[in-house]
Every structure is written in C-alpha cells, then in structure tokens.
C-alpha cells in the first residue's frame, strides 16, 4: 500500500507544481487553492508512504515522479522546449528512480 501512496503523492506533486505555475504568483484564486490542497494531500500521502518505506527511497521516488511529470506537462501544455539535453536529463532521472527502487531489496 505504501507504494500506491507514494505514486499518488508524486502525481499530486505534479498537480501542485502545475497549479502553482497557473496561479501566477498566487494572484489567481482557483489555481492557488488547487496548489495548496494538492500540496497538503501530496505531503500527507508521502508521510503515509514513509511509515514503511526508507526515507531516501520514498523522497527520491516522490521528487522523481514530480520532476518527470512536470517536465512532461511543461512540454505538452506550456510549450517548453524539448532538446537532447533535457531528454537526457529526464532519462537520467528515470534511471536513478529505477536504481533507487532496485537498491531497496
């Protein structure tokens, strides 16, 4: 169950990061509220996941899901550039997540 909490916590990190961008420096009400609600839910699920998962593993996976998810949303929805270096960076993050998960055994 901890892994499910962790995945949803990571996905909510993507939601709050995107909503924060849309809040325009917390000047727009609805995106600001979505940001705060998603942050609280993301942290709560991360805390639940950390009850049984190692700190380093849980935090790395959580931030990795957030990093890759926001990279994807940024390119798809916000028109942020895609180039070799950014794709390589995303690949290295994914490789790090896989290695972190494999090292847990």
Question: In short, what is this structure?
Answer:
The protein has 105 residues and is mostly helical.
Structure characteristics:
4 helices; 105 residues; membrane; 81% helix; transmembrane transporter activity
The profile of the biggest β sheet is: none
Count every helix, treating DSSP H or I runs of 4 or more residues as helices. 4
Share of residues in strands? under 5%
Tally of structural domains = 1
Q: What form results from the Cα inertia axes?
A: flat
Distance between the termini: 17 Å
- Helical content band: over 70%
Structural commentary:
This protein has one domain. Helices cover 81% and strands 0% of the residues. The protein has helices at residues 2-22, 29-49, 55-77, 84-103. Helix 1 packs antiparallel against helix 2, helix 1 packs across helix 3 (55-77) and helix 3 packs antiparallel against helix 4. The longest helix is centred in the middle third of the chain and has 23 residues, at 55-77. The chain is flat, with a radius of gyration of 15 Å. The chain starts with a helix and ends with a helix. 24% of the residues are buried. The chain crosses the membrane at residues 33-52, 59-78, 84-102. One of its GO terms (molecular function) is transmembrane transporter activity. This is Guanidinium exporter. It is found in: Cell membrane.
Please give the structural blueprint.
Elements: H1 2-22, H2 29-49, H3 55-77, H4 84-103
